[in-house]
């Protein structure tokens, strides 16, 4: 990709200039400003030219920050809570209390796991009903103590398995949707990677829905859609495009409220910068809703979801 | 409306599509069935008890003694918000389904009496794009719920759906949240919600309003679940046990209240209404 090379070159040049300016060559400042402008323009162009399928790859990148990383780097004093009090503890969902910039909050998110062992333990971020029931438990704790809830969405989907069906995967997801839809405390959801279908939405009924620039959010995976509707596994990139699963698409469709910019090339390239960017977005978002009284908050949230969808009325 | 009227109505509708004296093969026991006999038996195979699918209007006829209206919101119609095309255009699929079913989308919101009790019925039609839930299904469902809150009458849904409508992508996913919120509104207003699950009730419909009923009733042998059986088999790489995800299996696992056949469905619903409303 030529554009890619050009951007990398520019980035190096900018770095050099900055060093020289630091050392006292102040005359170079105008040149730096020009280069930066060009850099911005090119990076924007580059990000705009990324296909939906490109973003699917970034969203699933093995080094992309996960819920656990955001908890560690954005929150303090996290204390994890376990179990649904009915059957077990699902490690595909992490939940607990934490502080956000000194404020007590609750955090809930899908966790895919990093190395092979952890991925298996966490079932690749695909929850069983227990995971959603644990999430519901913690949401209700948040409501009881009037703590804002931050959710992080990153899952291929709810797990399709025998046990999951036996123990009511549908019921668990449905209940989570309803509980979130009426929870009397602020909820901010962020799609950080893969927002896979109902298993993602089960943590996504929020007052504000943020989405990282390269995250995806879809009713079905592009591969699944390709197999069912296009009758061909090779159609996944086309399905990805047509399903409108990127942050930009979802903003236009009125499904999310805000896109959180990622470091150039994706969150995995500069995780620290990503944490800063997301922290700032969460801070600003929380400010907008933290003082709304619970009745109004729930009413606004319900109206928000009631208005989703597009149809005609003759 | 009695059983006889119901049968007459179905026959009348069937006449448009099927010649007199047609035969159908039972999908389960493979017996050839005379269509008249099948209809008289509420579309249940007289030999093996296999239940044939019913259209949304047949559902309403089955449950209501007096139909005030088959659809309170006929003016809500689908658009193609994403200009979606797979092997076919979404617009064409909509058109075909409309021609096949006479419906605008996969749900109708009917209103009428069960004996002396007025109810709202949201009935889905599997023949309309697999009963998939898109923006119109969500919108009409929610209007139906609000109507029943306003009139303080029970709300009954009859699910028949393969899940969310992929052609509306994320917008169809959001209908899950929308309909779940509607059920919260029913709860807060003390309105009875009976959810009837028929074959099939899967995916986004199963994991939203269908499993939020105060009472959940399933028709015998209906396939009910979140993930489709094929997806599960591919994931776990083993064959699924006999009867997995069928109504009787769900009853055994504590996921539903009862399995009720068509002959007893209306009576059961009525009893539940009497126990909860007035
Ligand atoms: Zn039979």
UniProtKB/TrEMBL annotation, chain B:
Pathway: Lipid metabolism; malonyl-CoA biosynthesis; malonyl-CoA from acetyl-CoA: step 1/1. The keyword Lipid biosynthesis applies. SUPFAM superfamilies: ClpP/crotonase (SSF52096). InterPro entries: AcCoA_carboxyl_beta, Acetyl_CoA_COase_Trfase_b_su, ClpP/crotonase-like_dom_sf, COA_CT_N, Znf-ACC. It catalyses: N(6)-carboxybiotinyl-L-lysyl-[protein] + acetyl-CoA = N(6)-biotinyl-L-lysyl-[protein] + malonyl-CoA. It comes from the Bacteria. One of its GO terms (cellular component) is acetyl-CoA carboxylase complex. A zinc finger (C4-type) spans 26-48. It is found in: Cytoplasm. Pfam families: Carboxyl_trans, Zn_ribbon_ACC. Zn(2+) binds at residues 26, 29, 45, 48. Its EC number is 2.1.3.15. It is an enzyme of class 2 (transferase). Residues 22-278 form the CoA carboxyltransferase N-terminal domain. Its cofactor is Zn(2+). Keywords: ATP-binding, Cytoplasm, Fatty acid biosynthesis, Fatty acid metabolism, Ligase, Lipid biosynthesis, Lipid metabolism, Metal-binding, Nucleotide-binding, Transferase, Zinc, Zinc-finger. One of its GO terms (molecular function) is acetyl-CoA carboxylase activity. Binds 1 zinc ion per subunit. GO terms for biological process: fatty acid biosynthetic process; malonyl-CoA biosynthetic process. Acetyl-CoA carboxylase is a heterohexamer composed of biotin carboxyl carrier protein (AccB), biotin carboxylase (AccC) and two subunits each of ACCase subunit alpha (AccA) and ACCase subunit beta (AccD). Belongs to the AccD/PCCB family. HAMAP family: AcetylCoA_CT_beta. Component of the acetyl coenzyme A carboxylase (ACC) complex. Biotin carboxylase (BC) catalyzes the carboxylation of biotin on its carrier protein (BCCP) and then the CO(2) group is transferred by the transcarboxylase to acetyl-CoA to form malonyl-CoA. This is Acetyl-coenzyme A carboxylase carboxyl transferase subunit beta. The lineage of its organism: Bacteria, Pseudomonadati, Aquificota, Aquificia, Aquificales. The gene is accD.
